[in-house]
Amino acid sequence: MQTPTAKELEYIVDSMSNEELMLKQCAAAASITTNPAVRSLCQAHVQTHEQHLHTLMNALHQGLNSANGQFNANQQQFTGMTQQH
Question: Which residues lie closer than 8 Å to 45 by C-beta, 6 or more apart?
């Protein structure tokens, strides 16, 4: 996997915020509606947004781990170069 850029990681964080907002709005709509069909639809959307949030969280963790691994490799390479001089 290619190491994501800082901007790409920011996009993931922004998308997570959007999914959280949609999840909360769907949950609120489900809790106040009296129509069972609408409640069921809203609850289905809550589950969908929970799945999206979980997927984005995994992508963020993988991206951060990849970026951290790249940073550590670069740091070791730099340390080796400075010790030679």
Answer: 22, 26
Residue 67 confidence (pLDDT): 74
- Calculated CA dihedral for residues 13, 4, 70, 75, nearest 10 degrees: -70
Q: Which amino acid is at 42?
A: C
How far from chain centre, in Å, is Cα 64? 11
Q: Which two tokens mark 6?
A: 């800082």
pLDDT in tens, 47-81: 999 999 999 999 999 988 887 766 565 556 555 55
**Pairs from 6-9 (Cβ < 8 Å, separation ≥ 24):** 8/63, 9/60, 9/63, 9/64, 9/67
> Rounded to an integer, what distance in angstroms lies between the CA atom of residue 15 and that of residue 53?
8
CA-CA distances (angstroms) from residue 41 to 4, 28, 36, 37, 85? 35, 12, 9, 6, 66
Q: Give the mean pLDDT of 14-28.
A: 97
